[in-house]
Amino acid sequence: MTTDDHQLARELADLAGERLLAVRADLHAQGVEGRDLKDAGDAASQELLAAALAERAPGDAVLSEEAADDHARLTAERVWIIDPLDGTREFSEVPRDDWAVHVALWQAGELLAGAVALPARGVTYGTDPSSLLDLPARPAGDPPLRLAVSRSRPPAFAEELGRTMGATTVPMGSAGVKAMSVLDGSSDAYVHAGGQYEWDSAAPVAVAAAHGLHTSRVDGSALVYNRENPWSPDLVVCRPEVAAELMAALATMDLG
């Protein structure tokens, strides 16, 4: 890994974000919406990222939500794990801003670099050591744990976690936005127990870990990427000072 890997992840996420904003504005002005807008965003971002990776990292493999899975990645030294548009529903609901672009680099069993762009907010979070941010302080007075959850599909366990820990829920869109909400201080934890693909979490986990957040599966074990089946059962991203209490509470719950 080099500093260039961090920079490339950020540059790719930013370029894809710019393309998505342009596509969204142009097609929305033409009255395109719903599934057609989602598909156009997915295709445009995938096209840009695929071309950029082929040019900038020609020897690396790619695992993308929007491309056929080439199992050559399983023996590759370096693999880019990308989600060209995380939160297609939110992207199609103009002017919502809770959607993202994910770009992560995996090598030898580890996530080495990554970036999560929130284009409609004009913000990109990355793993470059020079751009790491201090975690905002929690509100004073030991407030209830704030749990980032899906606006449209809040998990059933959130209610139980609320009873167990006195947690409150903060509804929002894409997985990347939820994970980054812990980093920007608008939530304290993001717990996902319904399963998701590696491209949904690789870049958010890389960025969260680089900033000192706790990242793991719900049983506390390490998250593993570039597996033959890229399905991840569960995920926890949280502030380090709430990790022990949160993981203890999750251990008592049935998350199936």
TrEMBL record:
Gene3D superfamilies: 3.40.190.80, Fructose-1,6-Bisphosphatase, subunit A, domain 1
Positions that bind Mg(2+): 65, 83, 85-86, 200
Keyword S-adenosyl-L-methionine: no
Key words, A-Z: Magnesium, Metal-binding
GO BP terms: 3'-phosphoadenosine 5'-phosphosulfate metabolic process; sulfate assimilation
Sample GO molecular function, one term: 3'(2'),5'-bisphosphate nucleotidase activity
Reactions this protein catalyses: adenosine 3',5'-bisphosphate + H2O = AMP + phosphate
Cofactor(s) in the UniProt record: Mg(2+)
Family matches, as InterPro entries: CysQ/Inositol_MonoPase, Inositol_monoP_metal-BS, Inositol_monophosphatase-like
Protein name per UniProt: 3'(2'),5-bisphosphonucleoside 3'(2')-phosphohydrolase
